Amino acid sequence: MTILIEPIRPEHDAEICTIIKAVGAEFGAVGEGFGPSDPEVEAMSQYYTLDKNSVYLVATLNGNIVGGCGIAPFNGSSTTCELKKLFLLPESRGLGIGASLSEQCLAFAKQQRFTQCYLDTLSSMDSAIRLYEKLGFKHLTQPLEGTEHGGCDIWMLKSFEY
Q1: In angstroms, rounded to a whole number, what is the distance separating the alpha carbons of residues 58 and 62?
Q2: 127 DSSP assignment
Q3: Residue 13 lies in a domain
Q4: Mode of pairing for the β-strands spanning 116-121 and 80-88
Q5: Does 8 fall in a domain?
Q6: Which pTM does this prediction carry?
Q7: Does residue 145 sit within a domain?
Q8: Domain with 20 in it: what CATH number?
Q9: Cβ contacts of 68-73, under 8 Å, gap ≥ 24
């Protein structure tokens, strides 16, 4: 088993778009208010760039793209970032890929000197929620003001120690 994690490139865009939409549909995240409907999904490599303090990492398993995860400023904030679009195909789950993607994104966030990281997700995504809890995210009772994902029902925040 060979796992490769690397920053997204334009040639990854179409496949990552397909994965995000397919996994979103699997968990009912379809339509307005859910990440798979965001305009950035069509061309992720254009939205996640170092000059925007953001990165999107793509995971490849045995030569096939199986998912990805990103980090970007939350609503343009210089202190709060957002863990975004962690989506993995079923055959790649349970192998530690989601944890590795998330940990690398959070390390990037610390390098960028963000003080906290926000995420929103769905209560149906049990394994993702357990991962986020292990990574130190705490549950919130409501979304951060300005979230674009009104369809999500789980909101979490992690503070960084420096």
Answers
A1: 13
A2: H
A3: yes
A4: parallel
A5: yes
A6: 0.95
A7: no
A8: 3.40.630.30
A9: 68/8, 68/12, 68/16, 68/19, 68/20, 68/44, 68/101, 69/98, 69/101, 69/102, 69/105, 70/8, 70/44, 70/105, 71/105, 71/106, 71/108, 71/109, 71/117, 72/47, 72/48, 73/114
Tell me the residue range of the domain where 32 lies: 3-115
Q: Helix %, strand %, coil % for the chain, to 5?
A: 40, 30, 35
CA–CA separation, 115 vs 158, rounded Å? 9
| Residue 126, burial from CB neighbour count under 10 angstroms (0-12, 13-18, 19+) | exposed
Structure tokens at 13: 């865009």
- Which has the closest alpha carbon to 36: 126, 138, 131, 149? 149
Handedness of CA 99, 35, 81, 148 (dihedral sign): negative
How confident is the model over 1-36, as pLDDT tens digits? Answer: 899 999 999 999 999 999 999 999 999 888 888 888
Does the residue 95 lie in any domain? Answer: yes
Per the structure, how many domains does the chain have? Answer: 1
Task: For residues 69 and 157, give the distance between their C-alpha atoms in angstroms, rounded to a whole number.
Answer: 16
Neighbours of 100 (CB within 10 A): 15
pLDDT, tens only, 74-101: 999 999 999 999 999 999 999 999 999 9
